[in-house]
Amino acid sequence: MCLFRFAASRIQQFFIVLWRSWLTVIRDPASLKLRALQTIMISLVFGLIYLRQNLDQEGVMNINGFLFILVTNMSFSSQFIVINIFPMEIPVFQREYDSKLYSIEIYFLCKTLADIPFQILFPFIFITIDYWMIGLYDDVSKYLIACGIVILVSNVAASFGYMVSCIARTVTAALALAPPLMIPLMIFGGIFVNNKSIPSYFVWLKYLSWFKYATEILTVDQWIDVKNITCNEEPCIQFYNSLFIIYLSIYLSIYLSIYLSIYVCLSFRIYSLLYGYIT
């Protein structure tokens, strides 16, 4: 940690850098409009693909597929939005840091805080459109839980993007590094590979996978109170109470998954900050 004096106090540094970071975001209305248009367009496409699902065997498969695609889309889009932030500003930051205008942690904190309102707004718009178009569980509390989880996913993925951008140092390197780092986390998200069949040397990856936690929470949120699912043909999985969730191997509680997702989010951001100190 740097021990030399800065030109302003910590509080002054914080508010000045935060205000400048916020102005940097809102002074690019074209980018914000593009993000809004992209959010609405993709959510409408998903909504039309999975429009008004019925509670039968086909509907169950479609809804579960949508929940995982939702987490995946939100993760990749949120990551790539922030991945170029630090590499693009390294020259300016280095010059101002050497001039003792502000500290590393103040700069990092303010840059990440400035984008949080949009990491809340756009995921909220996305899930609000799709939740009612697709016909997920018709309950306000379930809808609010889904909104909270999608917003959390967006912020976890953004934290991962910040970490990658701090490590990569250039936009080109960040764009090349991000997919191979994120794809293993997606693979171990509980859909592509059964938890019991994950090789022992890769088990640790599933605990870092917010895909796993978010998909579990959204699936529990959708199905925990469903009492009956229509079977159109035999054989049919017997369904009562929460047996469906057991068949999907969902063992973590909602609260534990939320806590773990928050922990992963904070871990990525703390690691990004520490990497900034080291380099």
Keywords:
279 residues; mainly alpha; 11 helices; ABC-type transporter activity; transport; ABC2_TM; WHT; transmembrane
Distance between the termini: 11 Å
Which geometry do the CA atoms define? elongated
Q: State the helix count.
A: 11
Helix content: over 70%
In this structure, how is the largest beta sheet organized? none
Instruction: Write down the overall mean pLDDT.
Output: 86
Strand content: under 5%
Write the layout of secondary structure elements.
Elements: H1 10-26, H2 29-49, H3 57-82, H4 85-98, H5 104-134, H6 140-168, H7 171-187, H8 203-206, H9 210-223, H10 243-247, H11 254-278
Subcellular location: Membrane
GO molecular function: ABC-type transporter activity
Membrane topology: Multi-pass membrane protein
What does this structure look like?
By secondary structure, the chain is mainly alpha-helical. The chain has one domain (10-19, 29-230, 237-276). The chain is built from 11 helices and no strands. The chain has helices at residues 10-26, 29-49, 57-82, 85-98, 104-134, 140-168, 171-187, 203-206, 210-223, 243-247, 254-278. Helix 6 (140-168) packs parallel to helix 11. It is elongated. The termini are close together.
